[in-house]
Amino acid sequence: MKWYQLDVESVEQKLLVTANRGLSDKQVGERRKQYGLNVLEEEKTTSKWLIFLKQFQDFMVLVLLAATLIAGLLGEYIDAIAIMVIVLVNGFIGYFQEQKAEKSLAKLKELSAPVATVLREGEWVKVPSSEVVVGDVVRVASGDRIPADVRIAKSTSLETEESALTGESLPVMKHASSIRRDHLDPQDQVNMAFMGTLVTRGTGIGIVVGTGMNTVMGQIASLMVKTKKMITPLEHKLAELGKILIAVALALTALVVVVGVYQGHQLYEMFLAGVSLAVAAIPEGLPAIVTVALSLGVQRMIKKKAIVRKLSAVETLGCASVICSDKTGTMTENQMTVKEVYLNGKHLYVTGDGYDIRGDYFLDKRKLESDFPNLESMLLYGALCNHAQLKVKKGKYFVDGDPTDGALLVAARKLGLQPTNHQYRIIEEFPFDSDRKRMSVIIEDENNRRFVITKGAPDVLLPRTSFFIDESGRKLLKSADKRNIEGAINKMASKALRTIAIGIKPISNRDSFDSALLEKDLTFIGLYGMIDPPRKEVKSAIAECREAGIKTVMITGDHEKTARAIATHLQLLPENGLVLDGYQLNQMSPSELSDIIDRVYVFARVTPEHKLKIVKAFQEKGHIVAMTGDGVNDAPAIKASDIGVAMGRSGTDVTKEASSLILMDDNFATIKSAINEGRNIYENIRKFIRYLLASNVGEILVMLFAMLLALPLPLVPVQILWVNLVTDGLPAMALGLDKPEEDVMKRAPRSPREGIFARGLGFKIVSRGIVIGIVTLIAFMMSYQNNPDNLVYGQTVAFTTLVMAQLIHVFDCRSEKSVFSRNPFENMYLVLAVLSSLLLLLVVIYFEPLQPIFHTTFLGIRDWMFIIVLSSLPTVLFGFTKK
Question: Could you list the residue ranges forming a coiled coil in this record (predicted)?
């Protein structure tokens, strides 16, 4: 179907839809069954069997399987079966870890998917783009991604950027008229908008004519979606660490084998012991545990209203030293309320808060009615030059659209004004954008008279104004009148009120729709003074960030005095802190800005283009910068920052795609919570690295020391593998779920160049590992010397001591301080993991059928007292020290 050749009415008829009503729920259900979801086909995912088999392709596991085969050929069937069972259990654990990570990442992708605004049964609703169906009426605005192939039904200065399809980066102006020509390429179908392209300007309404693979995007094979697993810098570091550990482990294992054979042990016995030791020494599960820890941390962040789009952001969050935050909606409630009106040279005061339409207008203490000169006209103009809708849900009013527009609607409703389409018709619109800082509409009233209404920042509107209105009528705007208006602006700004000016201009039916001509020689009507109250939780969040060594910077398009008042109220601006405005920023070179950037806390009257300059200035000073934004023009700064933060409610799809983090509630306090969580995830990863490697060092050293002292093997291969499985897996995973320490937000930000073994971690691993190895060897030597005819008894005591030492040591790993600084029952996952490991140990020792397999025997009360004293020594010795 050549949809571009049909007029809008024909498209409506063919798709059984009307552009002012949309589809019914029944139609949506039927079309979803017919056409499927609005998604591009992905490459087939790896089957679960292949994921399971992948767990056995590790080099050391293959060597172990070869060793098992040799054991079986030599008649050591019990050892061979036991090792096979352990390898299979390890494989299942790896498989479930990988599945958990994949499910978490899939859920994350689903949460951060773009949404579309569609008309369903006369109501505009937001739905995931994947749920858009053929015939849906969609509304798009600057910064949105087009959710499907759409035939434009209404266009207001609508432009889209289609480089993803055509390679042409210049925006294409769109219109709603049909095109009669044949064989047009997509780039020439200017009444169509295509899936995946970006709205760069204006607004539009269209009817969906193609979804999923039936779109132009779906037909381009090179743009087929392929999901790539994200490798974080930390995972990369750990992969490098793994290579080093393999080399070290193989060297030490070879040494153990050579020394063992030299001491008279059988080559086969030492080969199997060496391979088992190498498998135990190399924490092959480490990358999987890191991925699970990251993805579980991401799930916790989602519960706190923060969606992490890139796993690498979790690490970077812990390094953040500056947060550059938008004021409106992030630090404030985003519920603008008109509190003051400047009209006829007088200040009128407005009662009522939020979006409640109850309220009155007062001049001093006198309540005003609609007959007060120019009041009804001013409020009417504000309601007409408007994109928002005031709706009711469960008896409460809410705004669908921009909060500033919503405040103007509420202000009009307080005087009983609710203009309809029958009274006033919008002929043309010149939309607001960050460069123009104003919006204009051409209105035709019921008497066919036309006039332009322009609203915007006072400093933008006043230079375009030649007249003003007061109680006696329209007059020429003189310098003295301008000074009075500027005085009113300053007075409002000093009260932290945001000011919006409104002006009009009568025009004839013959005037061209040229914004440059229409938006000059305006008549100034008045000023709205509105406030967006600060969020209650933001002041404490800023204080916590300051304590954590993180500087908070407010960025706003508001007047400098308004910004200063809000920043002072939030205790963000210190006594010697600087406030810069957009004009001053324009006058500064990058080096001049860099010289003073550390003293600046507030940027006022800035454009999104300024944000990029601010980000780069902070980065020049070595800061790790988190930058928030919502508009399409914020995307470059968000992408350039170290942690781009997009608004989930008010943010455009483009901004979300450029970001690392999406705030579902658009709240500054959520950024603080995400940084807290990011720091904790990194600390938890350090904890289980510390635990795993210290345990592995202990296992290698006990065997090496025994060989050097010409002693029998203190641990048999199957015991080494069992220790690796029982004491490494579950407790290490549980450490990844540890809650943050109390002082995690009282430490300075971590340097991004900090190595994994920084802050004494390397010393902790080696020192604890040596002591664990020594106490295990002492346990073996003493029990074996007391009973030299029973080697199995000595090996059981050594095996139990090693397991117990590691299970007690895991609680020492919970803190950078001492083991006694934290309540062990804070992490019940860890307590349960340790109890599970202990129960499995008891089964191996006391369940008779398993004793010959694991070379164990019964232990008495005295044995346990001896084991507990020895296995507690590593933790007790280092328990009182931070080193």
Answer: none
Nearest of 488, 558, 503 to residue 341 by alpha carbon: 488
DSSP string, 777-807: HHHHHHHHHHSTT-HHHHHHHHHHHHHHHHH
**If residue 829 lies in a helix (H) or strand (E), which one and from where to where?**
helix 828-846
> How many helices and strands (H and E) does the chain possess?
31, 28
> How far, in Å, CA of 396 to CA of 229, rounded?
44
d(CA 501, CA 485): 10
**Cα→Cα distances 552→4, 622, 667, 672, 761, Å:** 50, 16, 14, 10, 31
Q: Strand 578-581 and strand 522-531: pairing?
A: unpaired
Tell whether the model's pLDDT for residue 860 goes beyond 80.
yes
Q: Which residue has the tokens 């971590």?
A: 750
Q: Which two tokens stand for residue 440?
A: 């204009």
Chain segment 132-143, per-residue pLDDT in tens: 999 999 999 888
More confident residue, 676 or 400: 676
Name 150's Cβ contacts closer than 8 Å, sequence gap at least 6: 138, 140, 192, 193, 194, 206, 207, 208, 209
Residues linked to residue 559 through DSSP beta bridges, in sequence order:
none
Residue 367 — φ and ψ, nearest 5°? -75, 135
Q: How would residue 227 be classed by pLDDT, with cut points 50, 70 and 90? A: very low
Catalytic residue positions, numbered: 326
| Among the listed residues 154, 148, 158, the one whose alpha carbon sits nearest the alpha carbon of residue 197 | 148
CB-CB contact of 385 with 439 (8 Å): yes
Secondary structure, 3-state, 617-677: HHHHCCCCEEEEECCHHHHHHHHHCCEEEEECCCCCHHHHHHCCEEECCCCHHHHHHHHHH
End-to-end CA, the chain: 73
- Cβ neighbors of 303 (< 8 A, separation 6 or more) are none
**3-state secondary structure (DSSP) of residue 541:** helix
Say how far apart CA 510 and CA 480 lie, in whole Å: 35
Residue 86: pLDDT band (50, 70, 90) is low
pLDDT tens for 425-447 read 888 888 876 677 899 999 999 88
Encode pLDDT of 628-676 as tens digits: 988 766 888 888 899 999 888 777 777 787 888 888 888 999 999 999 9
> Residue 52: which pLDDT band, with cuts at 50, 70 and 90?
confident
| Helix H or strand E encompassing 561 | helix 560-569
What domains are defined for the chain? 3-38+132-221 (2.70.150.10), 236-301+674-878 (1.20.1110.10), 307-332+535-666 (3.40.50.1000), 337-531 (3.40.1110.10)
Q: What is the pLDDT of residue 224?
A: 40
* CA 69/CA 275 separation, integer angstroms: 13
| Contact in structure between 506 and 314 (CB atoms under 8 Å) | no
Ranges assigned E (strand) in 211-305: none
Measured distance CA(211)–CA(15) in Å, rounded? 14
b/e map of 610-643 (b: 16 or more CB within 10 Å)? bbbbbbbbbbeeebbbbbbbbbbbbbbbbbbbbb
Enter the DSSP assignment of 390.
E
Give the Cα separation of 73 and 61 in Å (integer). Answer: 18
Q: Give pLDDT, residue 867.
A: 96
Q: What is the Cα–Cα distance from 70 to 73, expressed in whole angstroms?
A: 5
Say yes or no to pLDDT of 228 above 50.
no
Residue type, 207: I
Residue 551: the pLDDT is 96
Could you tell me how far CA 335 lies from the centroid of its own chain? 24
* Predicted local distance difference test score (pLDDT) of residue 467: 96
Q: What is the mean pLDDT of residues 240-260?
A: 77
